[in-house]
Amino acid sequence: MLVDLSVALNEKTPIYPGDPKTKIKISAVLEKDGYHDHYVSVGTHVGTHMDAPSHMIAGGKNLDEFPIESFSGRGVYIQTGKNFDSGEIKKVPMNAGDIVLFHTGMSDVYHDKSYYDEYPAIPEEVANYLVEKKVKIVGVDMCSVDHEPFPIHRILLGNDILIIENLTNLGVLAGKESTIYAFPIKLQIDGAPVRVVAEVP
Description:
201 residues, alpha/beta, Glucose Oxidase, domain 1, seven-stranded mixed beta barrel, two-stranded antiparallel sheet, 5 helices, 10 strands
């Protein structure tokens, strides 16, 4: 079974405060031009998206510099709520190359103001533990893994651990083994929208 962990991307998709607005315009009409076409303008960190190291790290890698194997792997689901209890997180088996997905429940208020005002941050102790375990991707059902000045971004991205934000449907993975596929557009920049899919038995 495949589970879509991505939000829809359109002009109503919430954006992080200060980020560019999404614009989708018709550039060709089937009845007039013989085909449909659209112009799409989006920020690189809108909707379900992936952060590359260059997003926050000087000289960091862009998305296109990662091998294709970097974007899929064994999923590790962890239900944290807003607490991110490091002791409980460390009880969950994880290996090098895993994709760790934190389910905080914030996706339940995705279209509310509280989604951007009341989200928790991953503690530095947890971020350093993920680096120690050599996971390849960390994903959250929140708008960000932290708050300004973004120390968690710098810890993870500084160790070439990719970040996925604005995930949804994570609860479906509770108690299940999964393989995660998260392939971003091959842009030579700091991030991109990504379609994240979990394959579960």
